[in-house]
Write a structure and sequence with these properties.
374 residues, SCF_F-box_component, 4-stranded antiparallel β-sheet, mainly beta, 7 helices
């Protein structure tokens, strides 16, 4: 079938057949189909179609891995098809914030991501912050109101995000260490509210990564019951209180620890020198850790390409039943399927255009949705 015949076939399809065909497309393709013609743009933007499209999947089981490599493009890995897809970022906050001093994705929930940008104020030596929420597929975004004056002017808080799919709203929680404020943003009224204070014993955050699980915001801190040491602490978002007790790290030799949620449980991954990468599960009744798995030595050797002795860093993301271990862009990504207890390496098939010209690099998991409004 040539191009002219294809045009005749597609233009002659009844609306109900066209609707069913478009419902079968993956989300990254669906966003591009809006540019085909006015009819398709109108159909793909209608609330009824978006609701039917999102209802095809079990919520929370259609996540993808997004790898931001420059201000104008990102890579999206779909674990269902085991393929990488180019995700243009033109007209998105990440391209808009390109000239800022810093920009980083600080939290994600549903199909939305929260982005923190920093820029130098005019006629001043101070640095100003700008928070945005964005849907990368629809390229829709919103600048959030300034943080309350109680928030420190320097430093960066831990951030967590909760998404309510049924009510089309979300919340963002920020926690500042050393008696700093705990501040909540509610999209329903677009306001920030100070809801508490961080304990004085929390000297600092050891990682900007946080994980939301069963209404609790988990993160790594230094101080408290283990002065000079690191431990995991949780904040109950719904009841606005601290969850006790704390959980010390599973090993004193653990380096580059990171937290991830899996089916209502908290997992921790990290590096142990001379051993490799291990994965633990938090036992809530004792706040202790049990080993889940250890990366096979050959996979660890392939994963460890930065230095001959030890990788410089590691991060992990959960997508469906798998935990993905990441070092940096264009390095092998290793996946561990928890239920099957199987390790494997992801296919690395980036397009030639993805050359990482800015040196920009971020990765996060998100549930693609055309229906999540900012």
């Amino acid at each position: 079938m040539d191009d002219e015949e294809a045009v005749v076939v597609w233009s002659g399809l009844p609306d109900d057949i066209l609707d069913k065909v478009l419902l079968c497309l993956p989300s990254h393709s669906l966003s591009r189909m809006r540019a085909v013609c006015k009819q398709w743009h109108s159909l793909l933007s209608s609330p009824s179609f978006l609701q039917r499209y999102d209802s095809r999947f079990c919520y929370g089981e259609d996540h993808v891995l997004v790898f931001v490599v420059s201000s104008c493009e990102a890579m999206m890995y779909n674990p269902i098809s085991s393929k990488w897809h180019l995700l243009p970022l033109v007209d998105s906050p990440l391209s808009t914030l390109y000239n800022m001093m810093e920009r980083a994705v600080t939290a994600a929930a549903g199909g939305l991501v929260c982005i923190l940008g920093k820029y130098a104020a005019q006629d001043s030596n101070c640095t100003l912050r700008q928070l945005l929420v964005c849907n990368l597929l629809t390229k829709s975004w919103r600048c959030l109101p300034p943080l309350p004056p109680e928030c420190p002017q320097i430093g960066q808080p831990i951030m967590g995000m909760l998404h309510d799919q049924q009510n089309f709203c979300y919340k963002i929680i920020t926690v500042w260490p050393d008696r700093g404020p705990i501040v909540e943003y509610d999209s329903r009224n677009s306001t920030w509210t100070v809801i508490g204070r961080c304990p004085v014993s929390f000297l600092s955050f050891k990682s900007m990564q946080s994980t939301v699980c069963e209404g609790l915001l988990y993160f790594l801190v230094e101080g408290g019951p283990l002065r000079g040491g690191m431990f995991v602490r949780a904040y109950d978002i719904h009841h606005r209180e601290w969850h006790t007790p704390s959980a010390p790290l599973p090993s004193r030799d653990l380096q580059s620890p990171c937290l991830v949620e899996h089916k209502g449980r908290i997992l921790m991954a990290g590096l142990i020198r001379g051993v490799g990468i291990r994965l633990w599960r938090l036992k809530l009744w004792t706040m202790g850790w049990e080993i889940v798995a250890e990366m096979p030595s050959q996979l660890f050797a392939d994963f460890n390409l930065d230095t001959p002795g030890f990788p410089s860093r590691v991060n992990c993301m959960r997508i469906c039943d798998s935990i993905y271990f990441i070092s940096n862009f264009r390095r092998p990504i290793v996946a561990y399927e928890v239920m099957k207890n199987v390790w494997h390496m992801l296919p690395m098939s980036y397009p030639p255009s993805c050359s990482n010209p800015d040196g920009m690099e971020q990765y996060f998991s998100v549930q693609p949705s055309l229906n999540d409004a900012v």
